[in-house]
Known about the structure:
- By secondary structure, this protein is mainly beta.
- The chain has strands at residues 5-12, 21-28, 34-39, 45-49, 52-57, 63-68.
- The strands form two sheets. It has a three-stranded antiparallel sheet with strand order 1-2-3, with no helix packed on it. Strands 4-5-6 form a three-stranded antiparallel sheet, with no helix packed on it.
- The radius of gyration is 13 Å and the shape is flat.
- The termini are close together.
Amino acid sequence: xxxxxxVRIFKEQPIEGNSWINKYxxxxxxxxILLGYIDSPKDFDxxxxxxxxxxxxxNNEMAVYEYGISN
Length: 71
């Protein structure tokens, strides 16, 4: 992952009984410089497998978003 840091940003904290509301990810390099933003699907599962990051949307779209993370 080239020493990159992925920070998950939330729109708001959950109110009792509700889930967190995701907004996006900020991606920083190993020196702390912001490289960019990646929007996240509204409700998703997050998986990291073999230098790949997968956002799995199990709701209306039934989609998988894939990002390559190389060393």
